[in-house]
Amino acid sequence: MNQSCCSPQESRLEDQIAGKEDKYRATHERVFKILESFDNTRPWIDIQRALYFTRSMQETEGEMLCLRWAKALKNIAENIDVYIDKDNLICGRGGYAGRYGMLYPELDGDFLDIAVKDLPSRKESPFGISPEDAKIATEEIAPYWKGRTYHEDLNACLPEDVHGLTYDDKDGLTSRFLVNETSSFRSSIQWVHDYEKILKRGFKGIRDEAVEKMEKLDPLSPIDAVDKKPFLEAIIITCDAIKTWANRHAVLAREMAEKETDVKRTAELFKMAEICERVPEYPARNFQEAVQSQWFTQMFSRFEQKTGTIISNGRMDQYLYPFYKADKEAGVINGQQAMELLECIWVAMAQTLDLYISPTGSAFNEGYAHWEAVTIGGQTPDGRDATNELSYIFLKSKREFPMHYPDLAARVHSRSPERFLADIAETIKDGAGFPKLLNDEEVVPLYVSKGATFEEALDYAVSGCAEARMPNRDTYTSGGAYINFVAALEMTLHNGKMLKWGDKQLSIETGDPSTFKTWDDLWNAYVKQHKHFLRTAFYQQYTINKIRPKHFAQPMGSAMHDLCMKHLMDLHSQHIPEGIELGYFEHMGIGTLVDSLAAIKKYVYEDKKITLKEVIEACDCNFEGKEDVRQLLMSAPCYGNDDPYADSIGKEIDAINVRYAKKYGEEMGMHNDVRYVPFTSHVPFGRVVGATPNGRLSGTALSDGSSASHGADKHGPTAVLMSNFTTKNYGMRDRAARLINIKFTPKCVEGEEGTDKLISFIRTVVDLKLWHVQFNVINKDTLVKAQKDPEKYRNLIVRIAGYSAYFVDLSPDLQNDLIRRTAHERV
Question: Phi and psi dihedrals of 737, rounded to 5?
């Protein structure tokens, strides 16, 4: 391979294959050693969190849910094993040494016994489990939750027509991948805590506030006695619990220090013990205490609940900067030492895997998906550029330490410094997919239009795949629907049926397609199917909103939220006064859908080169013997090329979504906005859909996010941006994130000229007010070689769907999806 045309990541991989040592190892020796102790090892299920949670819940039946949850957290804090990793300067984990995943039986424990049998051998993200733990999971944990889980409640609440588009079996164990609910494999959608509050006040400060509020309750008020008092008791118990857990690490660190023979490590352990005795109970006094306090808080939050896409790290370069600045000015820390402490979190984070036990959840989140976003850059609450020295340290770490943890996200805006954009461009060119970019010029005005102040909107943090959160103002936690609108088109062409399910009437009848004489006939039939899918999704969501507060509580998350503490309400309450409820539904396969409709409109109804019947017959036989038809359809105008013909269809589809969201979201008392972010679900959603009129073959992946169909974007990456711009209804507010994947060859962006091109491209994204963009910079040959010889390319990192993962951990379908994406050779 021509080394001048390789990304830095590819060059390091080739050196590694040749037996050369990584050039950055000497300056990152500690974290390299920790990484090598677990990297590429098989992950295991640790049942302790589930076991102690379950035992406590058994003992507290009949009490208020928030109080039961706090007592369960206390039981976990007092009994779960504590560990301190060899060589690490930061402590706090929730499972075995090495990579592990925790169970949340309150969520989907009704098929825990099935999952325990299947997890070790499943294709997507397998997990091992010891025979002893499997026995406890199936004989002690699972039996208690049978009949009590959120998933069972939701499954029973959905009427037949909604259930039929949601699940593929009566028990709701498998999805149809048509209108897919996601709330049953996560307790909350992506979330950001107010970590700065803990660093400044400590949990003692929050506990003191709760005690003070408790003393002011009216002893004669039934509301105060029944609702508010248990809430405050839960806050107090939870604050005590995390203190207990941290102090147990202090005891362990001292015990290890007394046995340690290495003088340097002994000193490190004694220092760690002192820190664990202080934080997160009290405010942090220096950078190491702040980093440890943040990690304890984040890790304990993982004990509390399963947050979809994992809990976010928030704006780390903002809330950690005062501690770094003070320590640096005092001469007690430098940039390299600060980076080492942060990287100690990264290697701890990389061992705590997000475990999905449902087949649907694992299909949506391949490659041990993770989105514990660290946000850098952006603006301050008063509108100034927020970039600081820590922002650059995070980027430098990504270029030098070969890990796909954490998921680094950079906020950009019209006044982002040229130096910052250059550093972002150099990091993107490294080739591991970092950082993903979110655009203040789109996100901030949208949030203000939905009720936020400018100060709140300017302080947003990236959360999850491509979404954002405003700590202390966001209050919505329910997972939304993923909607397969390409399937809606197939149903339009088969009068409510699909090839996969034969004669089963899955959706409404919209007419025999042989009667569609005009484009308007077909379009109107499609719109009816589209709206029926939306109706199904909104029915799901309304039901979800009503039943979730009966199943979930979040005392720790509530303790860290201003509005929860003001109104003394749990964060999982259906409505919290003054909160902004930002939910969303996912539009799947926009490129596939637009291209298919454009081909029908042009060649069937305008040019009359083919009949609709011939199109349907060609799709039904997967184009076998119909390659001429396929080639004709593939020559139609396509989304992703800045083509007004195709993009006008995309804009009208988007308008249907936002109009529906406005009317019925408001009726539900929330913002249930349209979003174009698939995770990896465009692959399983594609498996249920037959061949489509854009030439896509049966069972293959749909287009991902708001990106173009595979190979359809033939006019360069800027045209992809323009199609995103022209298909968006900027005058409407009921919309959220759009994920854009861009793939460049390393040759395209090499050298200073390539950096300048990337900077200009990023500024174009900003100017067009596009929400998100992320990049792969890699040669196709590297991906093909890694697919053929995975052991040699175990450490190849690629950007997938809002996160980066090891390429060899992905299914062949998802690997092929990445290989088939257009690799742009010019910016």
Answer: -70, 145
Give the contacts of 109 (CB within 8 A, at least 6 positions apart). 103, 141, 142, 144, 145, 146, 148, 149
Strands in 503-635 per DSSP E = 582-588
- Domain membership of residue 563 (yes or no) is no
Closest residue by Cα to residue 712 from 816, 624, 797, 591: 591
User: Where does 635-776 have alpha helices with state H?
Assistant: 644-668, 682-687, 717-726, 751-767
CA distances for 250 relative to 92, 195, 256, 257, angstroms? 11, 21, 10, 10
Cα separation, 701 vs 698, in Å, equals: 9
Q: Please indicate whether residue 586 is annotated as part of the active site.
A: no
pLDDT at res. 3: 45
Q: What is the mean pLDDT of residues 224-247?
A: 98
For residue 779, tell me if it sits in a domain.
no
Q: What was the pLDDT predicted at 4?
A: 59
Catalytic residue among 442, 467, 490, 581: 467
Number of neighbouring beta carbons within 10 Å of residue 58: 11
Closest CA to 304 of 564, 73, 125: 73
Alpha helices (runs of H) in 216-334, residue ranges in sequence order:
222-223, 229-259, 263-278, 287-304, 316-319, 321-329
Tokens of 64: 């208020």
pLDDT above 90 coverage of the chain, percent: 89
What lies within 8 Å, CB to CB, of 493 at 6+ separation is: 513, 612, 615, 616, 619
The token pair at 343 is 């990287």
Q: Which of 344, 465, 619, 748 is catalytic?
A: 465
Structure tokens at 250: 């202090």
Active site residue 467: yes
Please enumerate in sequence order all residues whose Cβ is within 8 A of that of 195, keeping only pairs 6 or more positions apart, or say none.
Answer: 294, 297, 298, 313, 314, 319
At position 198, the amino acid (one-letter code) is: I
Burial-class residue 752 by CB neighbours within 10 Å (0-12, 13-18, 19+): exposed
Any bridge partners for residue 653, and if so which?
none
Q: Where are the beta strands (DSSP E) in 135-230?
A: 179-180
Token pair of 749 as six digits: 């962006």
Q: Which two tokens stand for residue 48?
A: 């302790």
Q: Is 729 exposed, middle or buried (0-12, 13-18, 19+ CB in 10 A)?
A: middle
Task: Look at residue 360 in the predicted model and tell me its pLDDT.
Answer: 72
Which pLDDT does position 362 carry in this prediction?
Answer: 65
Distance, CA of 668 to CA of 302 (rounded, Å)? 30
Domain for residue 3, yes or no?
Answer: no
Which structural domain range is residue 674 located in?
482-551+581-739
Name the pairing type of β-strands 582-588 and 482-484: parallel
% of the chain surpassing 70 pLDDT: 99
CA angle at residue 572 from 71 to 58, to 5 degrees?
30
Q: How many domains does the chain contain in total?
A: 1
Distance CA 489, CA 697 (A): 15
pTM above 0.85, yes or no: yes
Query: For residue 270, how many other CB atoms are within 10 A of its CB?
Result: 16
Asked whether residue 423 is assigned to any structural domain, the reply reads no
On the question of pLDDT at 1 being above 50, the answer is: no
Q: What is the mean pLDDT of the chain?
A: 95
- Locate all alpha helices (DSSP H) within 365-439, ordered by sequence: 389-400, 418-430
Angle (CA) 817 818 823, round 5° = 120
532: CB partners within 8 A, 6+ apart = 488, 507, 508
CA distance linking residue 427 with residue 411, whole number of Å: 14
The 8-class DSSP code of residue 606 comes to I
Of residues 518, 436, 424, the one with CA closest to residue 756: 424
Using H for helix, E for strand and C for coil, what is the string for 799-818?
ECCCCEEEHHHCCHHHHHHH
Q: Are the C-beta atoms of residues 779 and 750 closer than 8 Å to each other?
A: no
The span from the CA of 29 to the CA of 572, in Å, is 43
State phi, psi for 61 to the nearest 5 degrees: -55, 140
d(CA 534, CA 196): 39
Question: Which of 578, 803, 626, 608 is closest to 704 using CA atoms?
Answer: 803
